[in-house]
Amino acid sequence: MSVEKKLLAYHLGRLADKNPEIRLQSIRELADLGDVEAMSVLENVFKEDPDPAVRKAAQLAGREIFVKNQPKHK
Length: 74
Prior knowledge:
single chain, Leucine-rich Repeat Variant
């Protein structure tokens, strides 16, 4: 397993943490990684997390990952 995939798995796991600050930090890290595998989990966080700031961060991170993964036009 690559380091990037290990980081992805680590941060996805932290999205279940009780502390919203931990969830927010992992969402930021997932956005930085830009891996499309995180998008479905971020969508669930956006729909179900009890903290509005965490939901908003998940939405923004999903958008950022989507944009990062669009083909570049010349």
